[in-house]
């Protein structure tokens, strides 16, 4: 088993204990109820597994980077912040991008939805207030 560590997932500090070090972030997310992140090609090409990795740039600003969870090992997020599609919005409080898609009859087949939200919602989720803590259910 791997070492224990913490990371921030959708605005909540998450403790990881007793998970093998070769577990992918995608496997962990899906096993813990974050099923909006999908498994597609398992090679990082299709976008179905995309999450956002939150970093800080040289000016101290939060930057959201697309991060393929199917090829990232779980320990790679130790001490870092990850946002999944569940952290962007919910049925009760949709994110503005989700709301706009619904109002304008946009659709997704569901296969690559997590990969699709990352580039279009980046400006809107640039502040902590836009990331909602997840209940861990989908």
Textual characterization of the structure:
The chain is an alpha+beta fold and 138 residues long. The protein has one domain: Beta-grasp domain (Ubiquitin-like (UB roll)), CATH 3.10.20. The chain has helices spanning 25-31, 96-103, 113-121, and strands spanning 5-9, 12-16, 50-56, 62-68, 81-83. It has a five-stranded mixed β-sheet, covered by helices on one side. The protein is globular, with a radius of gyration of 14 Å.
Largest sheet: 5 strands, mixed
The averaged pLDDT comes out at: 80
> Low-confidence parts, pLDDT < 50 over ≥5 residues?
118-134
Highest-level CATH class = Alpha Beta
Count structural domains: 1
End-to-end C-alpha gap: 28 Å
Protein topology:
Elements: E1 5-9, E2 12-16, H1 25-31, E3 50-56, E4 62-68, E5 81-83, H2 96-103, H3 113-121
What's the short version?
By secondary structure, the chain is an alpha+beta fold.
Please describe the structure with a list of short key phrases separated by commas or semicolons.
five-stranded mixed sheet; globular; single chain; 17% helix; alpha+beta; 3 helices
């Amino acid at each position: 088993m791997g070492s224990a560590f913490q990371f921030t997932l959708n605005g909540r500090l998450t403790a990881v204990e007793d998970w093998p070090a070769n577990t992918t972030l995608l496997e962990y997310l899906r096993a813990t109820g974050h099923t909006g992140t999908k498994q597609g090609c398992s090679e990082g090409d299709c976008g179905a597994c995309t999450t956002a990795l939150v970093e800080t740039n040289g000016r101290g600003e939060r930057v959201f980077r697309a991060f393929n969870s199917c090829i990232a090992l779980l320990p790679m997020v130790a001490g870092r912040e990850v946002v999944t599609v569940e952290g962007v919005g919910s049925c009760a409080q949709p994110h503005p991008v989700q709301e706009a898609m619904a109002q304008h009859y946009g659709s997704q087949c569901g296969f690559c939805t997590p990969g699709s939200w990352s580039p279009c919602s980046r400006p809107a989720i640039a502040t902590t207030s836009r990331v909602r803590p997840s209940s861990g259910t989908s």
